[in-house]
Amino acid sequence: MPSAIGFDPHDHSHCIEDALQAAQDCCTAQKLQFTPVRRRVLEILLAEHRALGAYDILDLLAADGLGSQPPVVYRALDFLVRNGLAHRIERMNAYTACVHPGQEHVPAFLICRACKAVAEIETELERGRLGEAARTAGFAIERVVVEAEGLCPACAGSGK
Ligand SMILES: [Zn+2]
Ligand SMILES: [Zn+2]
Ligand SMILES: [Zn+2]
Known about the structure:
This protein is of the alpha+beta class. The chain is 42% helix and 16% strand. It is built from 6 helices and 5 strands; from the N terminus they run H-H-H-H-E-E-E-E-H-E-H. The chain has helices at residues 12-29, 36-46, 54-63, 70-82, 128-137, 153-157; strands at residues 86-89, 94-97, 106-112, 118-123, 146-150. Helix 1 runs antiparallel to helix 2, helix 2 (36-46) crosses helix 4 (70-82) and helix 3 (54-63) packs across helix 4. One zinc ion (ZN) is lined by residues 112, 114-115, 117, 151-152, 154-155.
């Protein structure tokens, strides 16, 4: 049964399970500790394909009895971001789970300003207008932040 969570209809229950398994595999392969707090934070981020602030996550963690101190959340988020399991959305100062953990990619984000849904798409450093302009200028791009803000299909349809 496809779910409306995320921009593309997909089986969302698999989505969470698969991503948690992929994260576990990444951690095992790199001999990293996938602690209960790190796992739960990732699970919270995966729950709705939405951008969440550290304090939103903290509330849910505290409700689970996994910790109520901001450093606990920040350390877990830092771990997830550093290891490519989650991304920070700079303009919202929020976090989202990566949709292809363990793969080398340059993420770009489509962010709904109404419901905060986030879709991660891929971009490439060297392609497109930006890559061309950089080459012309003799500039070596090392990092690109692409965060597009707008309305997701559900919100555009509801006339918000
Ligand atoms: Zn999903
Ligand atoms: Zn990603
Ligand atoms: Zn929306």
